[in-house]
TrEMBL record:
Its EC number is 2.3.1.-. The keyword Zinc does not apply. Keywords: Acyltransferase, Transferase. Residues 10-157 form the N-acetyltransferase domain. One of its GO terms (molecular function) is acyltransferase activity. It is an enzyme of class 2 (transferase). The keyword Transferase applies. Pfam families: Acetyltransf_1. This is GNAT family N-acetyltransferase.
Length: 157
């Protein structure tokens, strides 16, 4: 799979088993609740219905990750998780990961990409809306800690 980066300095590729420690560390640094476990990441790395992407400035400098889910006979892909290192935020990493996620959805003939976001995650909402995602639903008490969420969607192709 060939994924195009948003900028020359950010490269996006499919995650490998050797990325597992970095994936779990970033998950723990980024999310206070609703975290994926090492076992969940391991399962997603080996799954045909999931795609784990990583962004880096070089093969060793781990900047962020995106996790996508695909369902058989569904034209909608789901961005389950998007996380960037705190020091890499605002530098095009999220954009590069989202563009790669959209490209992966198109390669699998999905007509749309959906995601959920906490209503208080203003920086993520701003990113999604800037990239053409539109709010399609409210998710009351959606998150593990009781926080509300929004569902967003972008049509692909």
């Amino acid at each position: 799979m060939h994924l195009h980066p948003a900028t020359a300095s950010v490269r996006v590729r499919r995650a490998e088993t050797s990325d597992l420690d970095d994936l779990v560390t970033l998950e723990d640094r980024t999310f206070d609740s609703d975290r994926m476990s090492r076992e969940q990441y391991r399962r997603h790395l080996d799954s045909d219905s999931a795609l784990v992407l990583v962004a880096s400035a070089n093969h060793r400098n781990f900047l962020g990750t995106a996790v996508l889910f695909f369902r058989k006979r569904s034209g909608v892909a789901r961005l389950y998780s998007l996380a960037t290192q705190p020091e890499a935020r605002g530098k095009g990493v999220g954009t590069a990961l989202l563009e790669a996620a959209e490209a992966a959805g198109q390669q699998r003939r999905c007509r749309a990409l959906r995601l959920e976001v906490r209503t208080d995650n203003h920086s993520a909402i701003k990113l999604y809306e800037r990239l053409g995602y539109r709010r399609i639903g409210a998710l009351p008490a959606y998150y593990q800690d009781g926080a509300d969420g929004w569902r967003y969607e972008k049509l692909l192709g």
